[in-house]
Design brief:
Number of domains of chain B: 2
Oligomer: heterodimer
Strand order of the largest sheet of chain A: 3-24-23-20-19
Strand content of chain A: 15-25%
Number of strands of chain B: 0
Shape of chain B: globular
Structural class of chain B: mainly alpha
Number of helices of chain A: 16
Number of helices of chain B: 15
Helix content of chain B: over 70%
Low-confidence stretches of chain B: none
Low-confidence stretches of chain A: 56-62
Helix content of chain A: 25-40%
Number of strands of chain A: 24
Largest sheet of chain B: none
Order of helices and strands of chain B: HHHHHHHHHHHHHHH
Shape of chain A: globular
Largest sheet of chain A: 5 strands, mixed
Strand content of chain B: under 5%
Mean pLDDT of chain B: 91
Radius of gyration of chain A: 22 Å
Mean pLDDT of chain A: 91
Largest interface: A-B, 25 and 26 residues
Chain lengths: ~475, ~325
């Protein structure tokens, strides 16, 4: 896979334009000389003014940056999307069933389909969740599945992201910006709307409120505060849903029930959409020195007086080592074959596989098992000899801390690069909501590696985003 | 929707900081103008120090600087992050508060606030001198007006509105009272009816600092007189920076809160106290009782409004 030419989403190998990109291609040809560059400048101004920023940890130039936005949309055909969304729905159902099982009878372990040690000794396994009954049996309500495309009909899931995935506000704001920048392009295409996401999120959250919450359950979005890298998104979603945006000290637990401090006194909270990691959620149950969380909230959750979204402990299902078993998991719980491919993954604790990995490290991608955001990973073909050597050492020192995958030839999309249009590698993160039903927003966040040849799309590593269009029939 | 106590607090203070930035810009403009027109040796510096006193920054300034020249004072009041009341610090605090409560602001308000901060934070202090300084000071006032306009034009008339308005006018009342108090001695009745040159300069400073020098003429059709100036800024209900106007405005908004929440709290009593103090007065009574004592008491009661408001609505 490493050697092949990447799949170009706009052009066929013979240079003709692929059908879904026809309107875009015509529109691009009509743009005046500096048209795209001017649009790019306008886009930057729109985003900065709206305050759509993210924080880069360890950055010297101040904490807020605007994520680069590419003015050329990424387009997915209706039939392509149907396949994708079926595969995604299958995956999230199976993963929720898996979570219920590992926190109850652990049938899948008893059946020997997944090594017991891999689950029970895993840092992402949360023993406090054992036997707890979440509303509707759902653990992972909000999911962002990372998908890459390598061919006309070939999609791979890279990661399932079941622990408060971020980026959905970019999906929504990218669309807003795109409609301001190129209304004429929208007029020529039938683009599925993404604007319903906040409403669907609200419905999903209310559908998993504890019993007895009443007909209009109260939702609070729990944020670590304004210095968190995704704070913009937290406030954006709270605003769009009409929910309260709370920090830890705005919420308290009294008599096993959860309240927020309002101008008129305490008010009951039924559902907490928390954007705080498990470890920091409740200093009484998890990290005792956490200043961000709400003391006692986990016990209130256990008692069924509040719903935490996502549930603590979902990380066991998107752990990079468990990832390898997702096809098994789908078969075990649904009796179906996985519709979406998993990327083949090498296990470095196995001596033979490790030896092969060390010999071929220049062609491979190495990821830290618990890393995220593009930190702690190495892409062989675009790294130096010294970096190869460094990661070899790391793997030898802690083989269980790394997984290794072939370098996928991520598809490319036309991208605006200083006045010109050039192909750049992209991935896709569709957003899925699981509550009374599974709701998948047609579209998602397309991340694009703006550096020529780069395969790392993370915003923390110089990636940008694109509006993602799913066409309707 | 119910509002978090912290949200109410952030709204109240955001509004106060925007108003404060505007007042600081206005004061600096006055000081700058006066220093330009002074022909006496050392006169420029005296005007600037006098303006720093009105802003209650003279001690903090003296701790850092030996000489009060225009550039040093301007930098201190505009850009110094170590000065908690510099325009920079005020806009930053206002914007930080705004970020914390974005969901309680309209898009127009947020864009106005955020835009003001982004533009201001990109200005290089070194580039702002002379005519550019005046331009920037006007810009600060205009951005404050723009924010208030966005607020009035777009926000729901609910509790958030009341907290914002209360913050704005509590701050303004405080500002007017402090300017008067810092200069109260030039307003005291004296045997001579006509002020000397120094008096007139000081009166001009006071009026300009309250954007009242043109309006004064419309109301009194007379030359500057200490009694009128004090009357204008304390008791005149049509003067939007007078103590009585500000207190009434705050009272209306706290009454709105009592109505919305269906309950009166300690802060409603506190504002009634403050307002009755000015409404039941006349300039003769105030002078008889002592102008300085009156202003001191006003500032204390105004602080009590903030304290009781914070307690009544669960600020923390």
């Amino acid at each position: 896979m490493g050697e092949t030419t990447p799949f170009d989403e706009m052009y066929n190998p013979d240079g003709t334009v692929r059908e879904p990109y026809r309107a875009l291609s015509e529109w691009l040809a009509e743009q005046p000389d500096r048209g795209l560059a001017l649009m790019q400048t306008d886009a930057e101004a729109i985003f900065r003014k709206l305050g759509i920023t993210f924080a880069v940890y360890g950055s010297e130039e101040g904490t807020e940056k605007v994520i680069p936005f590419d003015v050329i949309p990424r387009i997915i055909a209706a039939n392509e999307w149907r396949k994708l969304s079926k595969g995604i729905e299958q995956r999230v159902k199976a993963l929720n069933a898996f979570l219920y099982d590992v926190y109850h009878r652990q049938e899948i372990l008893k059946a020997g389909r997944i090594p017991e040690k891999l689950i029970l000794n895993n840092a992402a396994f949360c023993p406090q969740m054992m036997g707890l009954e979440p509303a509707r049996g759902v653990y992972a309500h909000i999911i962002g599945v990372d998908i890459v495309r390598v061919g006309v009909d070939e999609f791979y899931v890279l990661e399932d992201n079941l622990r408060t995935p971020s980026g959905v506000s970019y999906m929504l704001e990218d669309r807003e910006a795109m409609m301001l920048l190129a209304p004429d392009l929208f007029q020529r295409s039938k683009v599925a709307p993404v604007e319903n996401y906040p409403e669907n999120l609200r419905r999903t959250l209310q559908s998993v409120a504890p019993e007895g919450a009443g007909s209009n359950p109260v939702i609070a979005v729990l944020t670590p505060g304004i210095y968190n890298s995704a704070y913009f998104e937290h406030s954006f979603l709270a605003d769009q849903m009409g929910a309260a945006l709370c920090e830890g000290h705005d919420i308290f637990v009294d008599g096993g029930k959860v309240y927020m401090r309002t101008t008129t006194g305490p008010e009951r909270v039924d559902v907490i959409y928390r954007r705080i990691d498990d470890d920091y959620l409740d200093p009484l149950t998890f990290k005792p020195d956490s200043m961000l969380g709400v003391p006692g909230v986990f016990d209130a959750y256990r008692a069924g007086n509040v719903t935490l979204v996502n549930a603590p402990g979902t990380g066991i299902a998107d752990d990079k080592a468990v990832y390898t078993y997702v096809p098994e998991i789908i078969e075990f719980y649904l009796g179906e074959k996985a519709l979406l491919n998993n990327v083949p993954t090498y296990n470095c604790t196995d001596a033979d596989q490790r030896a092969w990995v060390l010999d071929n490290i220049g062609d491979l991608v190495v990821k830290e098992v618990h890393g995220s955001g593009g930190y702690g990973m190495m892409v062989g073909p675009t790294s130096t000899k010294a970096q190869h050597a460094e990661f070899k050492k790391k793997i030898l020192a802690r083989p269980d801390n790394y997984i290794v995958q072939p370098t996928l030839a991520l598809s490319t999309c036309p991208t605006h690069i200083s006045g010109d249009v050039a192909p750049r590698h992209v991935d896709l993160r569709p957003y899925v909501l699981v509550g009374d039903e599974v709701r998948i927003t047609p579209g998602g966040l397309t991340r694009v590696a703006l550096k020529k040849g780069s395969l790392v799309v993370n915003s923390s590593q110089g990636g940008g985003t694109k509006d993602t269009w799913v066409l309707e029939d | 929707m119910t509002m978090l106590g912290r949200t109410a607090q952030n709204l109240f203070w955001m509004s106060r900081y925007v108003e404060r930035a505007e007042n600081m810009a206005r004061l600096l403009e006055v000081g700058y103008r006066m220093s330009l027109t002074s022909r006496r040796e050392g006169g420029a510096s005296e005007h600037l120090v006098s303006m720093l006193q009105a802003a209650e920054m003279d001690e903090a300034f003296a701790a850092q600087h030996e000489v009060a020249d225009v550039d040093t004072v301007a930098h201190f009041m505009m850009f110094d992050p170590a000065n908690p009341s510099s325009v920079y610090s005020c806009l930053q605090a206002a914007r930080t508060n705004a970020r914390s409560v974005r969901t309680a602001l309209t898009t127009d308000m947020w864009e106005s606030m955020n835009g003001a901060w982004l533009e201001f934070s990109q200005i290089k202090p070194r580039d702002v001198r002379g005519a550019k300084l005046l331009g920037l000071l006007q810009w600060v006032r205009q951005r404050s007006h723009e924010f208030r306009g966005a607020l009035l034009g777009t926000i729901l008339r609910d509790d958030g509105f009341a907290f914002l308005q209360a913050g704005n006018f509590v701050e303004r009342a405080d500002n007017t009272a402090r300017i008067l108090d810092m200069k109260y001695y030039v307003l005291l009745p004296r045997s001579s009816l006509v002020g000397g040159e120094i008096d007139i300069q000081q009166w001009t400073l006071i009026l300009r600092a309250a954007s009242a020098h043109r309006a004064y003429g419309h109301v009194y059709h007379d030359r500057y007189k200490a009694h009128n100036i004090a009357d204008f800024l304390i008791l005149r209900p049509e003067m939007p920076r007078s103590l009585v106007y500000c207190a009434r405005f705050v009272q209306q908004n706290l009454d709105l809160l009592a109505k919305l929440y269906g309950r009166r709290e300690a802060c409603q009593d506190a504002i009634d106290d403050l307002l009755s103090m000015v409404e039941d007065s006349s300039m003769d009574k105030i002078f008889a009782h002592g102008l300085h004592e009156f202003l001191d008491e006003f500032i204390a009661r105004n602080n009590r409004v903030t304290d009781t408001l914070s307690a009544s609505y669960n600020f923390y």
